[in-house]
Structure formats: structure tokens, C-alpha cells
Amino acid sequence: MTDAKEKQDLAWKAVGGLVGFATAWAAKKVLSVVWEKTTGKKPPADHDSLDVSLAEAIGYAVVMGVGMQVAQIVMARTARRRYDAWRALKDAARDVVD
Fold first, then answer.
1. pLDDT on residue 3
2. Single pTM value for the model
3. What does each C-alpha distance from 22 to 15, 60, 71, 89 come to in angstroms?
4. How many CB atoms lie within 10 A of CB 52?
5. CB atoms < 10 A from the CB of 27, how many?
6. Distance between alpha carbon 93 and the CA centroid of its chain, in Å?
């Protein structure tokens, strides 16, 4: 692998990690607000607690799992598309200069 390709891969890993972290944080906040508006209850903090019904704990887990995964897929694909476009533009500019 060329040195430039290794740097590009490392840069994408850093960008992808930051995008993933930000997406997970934002998705959890949004889904928690949606859960509270929909059910009228705060999201269950302790799924093992007997104060939370089994149906509520499972429902919350499903909503959070699916919602966060969908958000991460959409954001990762969008970020990758934008990163690839930026790299192509940068490479084209370098070819013009050379």
C-alpha cells in the first residue's frame, strides 16, 4: 500500500470515528425525546429494574437499537460520500498543479 493511501485510510478512520460518535450521541438524544413525547414517560434508565415493565424495556431497546443503527448507517454513508468527493477534488487539484 502506498504511503498516500495509508494516510488517506487513517484520515478516513479518524473522520469515520468522529462521525460515528457524534451520530450515536445525537441519535440517543433525539430518540429519547421521541420516546418521552410518544409514551409520556422518561426512557427507562435501568432495564433490569422491576419498576420497568418487560414490554417497556424491550420496546425501548428495539427503538434505540434500530434507530441508532439507521442513523449511523445514513451518516456513515453520507460522510463517506462527502469524504470521497473531497479527496477526488483534492487529487484533481494536485494533478492540475503537477
1. 66
2. 0.68
3. 11, 21, 10, 25
4. 17
5. 19
6. 30
Which three cell numbers mark 84?
Answer: 470521497
DSSP-assigned letter for residue 52: S
Cell of 26: 445525537
Contact residues for 34 (Cβ-Cβ < 8 A; gap 6+): 63
The pLDDT tens digits for 28-86 are: 999 999 999 999 988 888 777 788 888 998 999 999 999 999 998 898 888 888 888 88
CA distance 36 to 14: 33
Cell 462521525 sits on residue: 19
